[in-house]
Design brief:
This protein is mainly alpha-helical. α1 runs antiparallel to α3 and α2 runs antiparallel to α3. The mean pLDDT is 93.
Amino acid sequence: MPLMILPMATVMSGIDQKLLRAVRANGASPLAAFLTVFLPLSLPGVIAGVLLVFIYC
């Protein structure tokens, strides 16, 4: 589990919160803000975590 969480947490903590606030200020719902901004920016961490877990298994 740490092999998946550590890369994801590192990437997700580096995402600028101003981007999410800007999307919400322009009228997007929380789900739309997550799907259009946060998820695409966090995909490198998710992919790195999946690869680490796959290699370990």
